[in-house]
């Protein structure tokens, strides 16, 4: 039984739990609400809000997701009161004396991780905004100021934009949520950087990965598990090609969801694993799914929902639904929804997944043989403006105009228009890198271009300040320099200079 109430105007969901009480305060804001040049601001707020909690005798943490930020803990009723009230009080008076230290902590965290396959897929599918920011560094962290952070907190971390869940007997006595008033924000839009699907791109990975946009709902959840079983059966059990095979379902805060699949491989088995992934997706898409397979998946999922703590385990997701305008379903209702899923519905999701699919293939591999289009790594247009050659290559030039910048190599171009600029990175030596909403990058190095330094200094001068990232000095050895004179390489060997992202 899930009970709905409110605490200090914050909508609250409560469900009984067999073990220790746990609870979470969720705000409808995440990294998908940020812009690339200020990426990480929500994460900084999360860290600052938790700082004064320090070491505690109970387990607590924070999590910044795509569309929500959550502060949660497991402990006694007194712990819940102290933690949640303390988080709200901290949000109104963040410890900005700690700001530079937390920036360093986050930069260290960033340096110690590599993008997961799902994050790389997000970059290529959504571009350099919204849900695509999962695949980018938190560029904004070094430049954030207390005033910017205060404005962000005042905009997003408000009573109307929050939801509370409690796994326990009820609201603990004395719990207060002293949050300022604001408004409920709609979910971030779902963007696209893919002109056509299914599509593929290359990335340095020992294996392959896939994602697809499908209708949100129980049929898609069943499909994801059917796909997981197919990959495990064919790539792990039958042929021993992969150690890790996995597929999962992630709901968007709209009417769609993402199904993601991965399969790892030894270098010499990459082609076979790629073929096995393609075959598995095609097998399901043409309807070769057995009723017994669907029945087994549904029975397992319904069994999980029979657990006494199933309602409590679902509370965090249900509060997210509440904040994004989605219905709230009890375990009993979800059990009935799963039971109503038909074989034809699962087959329809499988066909949709293939039509909207994005495939990550290892370097030096392709998937055009399987009907996948090449995801764009170049731009279709070039800005109007003056042309300036690269010092060591007459086939390589920049076009700089009032609307933006293009780099043109032979008949290929990468263009970022100022009206579609997600971020401009600037170094003290004058180097600039512009990133477009579609993920295209143009790096302009004063050492490499035959143009007046004053002209280069004015590139992006009219961009709003919140789109500019000012970086510290670079190691001189990392600044590009003209190469010694050599014979021109064949044009086909130079296509890789235009990339949507650095490998």
Oligomer: single chain
Using only CA atoms, what is the Rg?
A: 25 Å
CATH class categorisation of the largest domain: Alpha Beta
Q: Under CATH, the topology of the largest domain is which? A: Cytochrome Bc1 Complex, Chain A, domain 1
Number of helices: 13
Question: What helical percentage do the residues reach?
Answer: 25-40%
Strands of the largest sheet, in order across it?
1-2-6-3-5-4
Major sheet details: 6 strands, mixed
Second CATH tier, the architecture of the largest domain = 2-Layer Sandwich
The CATH homologous superfamily name of the largest domain equals: Metalloenzyme, LuxS/M16 peptidase-like
Distance between the termini: 49 Å
Task: Report on the architecture of this protein.
Residues 479-489 have a biased composition (Pro residues). GO terms for molecular function: metal ion binding. The chain has 503 residues and is α+β, with helices and mostly antiparallel strands. It folds into three domains: 3-167, Metalloenzyme, LuxS/M16 peptidase-like (Cytochrome Bc1 Complex, Chain A, domain 1), CATH 3.30.830; 199-374, 2-Layer Sandwich (Cytochrome Bc1 Complex, Chain A, domain 1); 386-497. The chain contains 13 helices and 20 strands. It has helices spanning 41-51, 77-92, 99-111, 117-126, 146-156, 218-238, 270-285, 291-305, 310-313, 315-323, 331-339, 343-355, 453-457, and strands at residues 3-7, 10-15, 22-27, 59-64, 69-74, 162-167, 199-203, 207-215, 245-251, 256-264, 358-362, 373-374, 386-390, 393-401, 404-409, 412-417, 421-426, 432-436, 441-444, 468-470. It has a six-stranded mixed sheet, with helices on both faces. A six-stranded mixed sheet has the order 9-10-8-11-7-12, sandwiched between helices. The protein has a four-stranded antiparallel sheet with strand order 13-14-15-16, with no helix packed on it. A hairpin with a 4-residue loop joins strand 9 (245-251) and strand 10. Helix 6 (218-238) runs antiparallel to helix 7 (270-285) and helix 7 (270-285) packs across helix 12. The protein is globular. Residues 488-499 have low confidence and may be disordered.
């Amino acid at each position: 039984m899930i009970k709905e109430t409110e605490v200090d105007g914050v909508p609250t969901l409560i469900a009984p739990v067999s073990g220790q009480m746990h609870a979470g305060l969720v705000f409808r804001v995440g990294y998908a609400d940020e812009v690339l040049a200020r990426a990480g601001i929500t994460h900084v707020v999360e860290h600052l809000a938790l700082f004064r909690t320090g070491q505690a005798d109970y387990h607590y943490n924070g999590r910044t997701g795509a569309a929500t930020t959550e502060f949660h803990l497991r402990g006694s009723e007194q712990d819940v009161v102290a933690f949640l009230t303390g988080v709200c009080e901290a949000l109104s008076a963040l410890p900005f004396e700690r700001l530079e230290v937390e920036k360093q902590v986050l930069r260290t965290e960033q340096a110690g991780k590599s993008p997961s396959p799902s994050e790389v897929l997000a970059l290529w599918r959504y571009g350099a905004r919204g849900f695509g920011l999962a695949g980018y560094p938190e560029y904004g962290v070094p430049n954030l100021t207390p005033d910017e952070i205060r404005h962000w907190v005042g905009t997003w971390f408000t009573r109307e934009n929050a939801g509370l869940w409690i796994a326990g007997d009820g609201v603990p006595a004395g719990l207060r949520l002293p949050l300022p008033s604001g408004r409920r924000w709609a979910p971030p839009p779902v963007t696209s950087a893919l002109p056509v699907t299914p599509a593929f791109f290359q990335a340095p990975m020992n294996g392959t990965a896939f994602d697809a946009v499908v209708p949100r709902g129980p049929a898609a959840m069943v499909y994801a598990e059917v796909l997981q079983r197919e990959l495990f059966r064919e790539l792990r059990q039958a042929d021993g090609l992969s150690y890790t095979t996995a597929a999962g379902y992630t709901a968007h805060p709209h009417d769609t969801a993402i199904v993601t699949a991965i399969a790892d491989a030894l270098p010499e088995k990459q082609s076979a694993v790629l073929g096995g992934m393609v075959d598995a997706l095609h097998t399901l898409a043409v309807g070769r799914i057995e009723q017994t397979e669907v029945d087994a998946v549904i029975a397992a999922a319904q069994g999980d929902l029979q657990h006494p703590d199933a309602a409590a385990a679902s509370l965090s997701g249900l509060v997210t639904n509440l904040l994004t305008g989605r219905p709230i379903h009890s375990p009993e209702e979800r059990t009935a929804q799963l039971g109503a899923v038909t074989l034809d519905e699962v087959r329809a999701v499988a066909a949709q997944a293939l039509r909207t699919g994005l495939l990550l293939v290892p370097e030096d591999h392709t998937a055009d043989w399987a009907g996948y289009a090449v995801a764009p790594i170049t731009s279709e247009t070039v800005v109007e403006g003056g042309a300036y050659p690269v010092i060591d290559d007459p086939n390589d030039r920049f076009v700089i105009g009032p609307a933006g910048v293009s780099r043109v190599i032979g008949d290929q171009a990468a263009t970022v228009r100022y009206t579609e600029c997600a971020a401009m990175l600037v170094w003290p030596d004058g180097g600039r890198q512009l990133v477009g909403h579609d993920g295209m990058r143009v790096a302009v190095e004063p050492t490499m271009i035959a143009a007046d330094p004053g002209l280069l200094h004015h590139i992006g001068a009219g961009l709003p300040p919140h789109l500019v990232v000012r970086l510290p000095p670079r190691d001189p050895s990392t600044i590009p320099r003209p190469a010694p004179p050599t014979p021109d390489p064949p044009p086909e060997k130079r296509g890789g200079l235009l990339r949507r992202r650095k490998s």
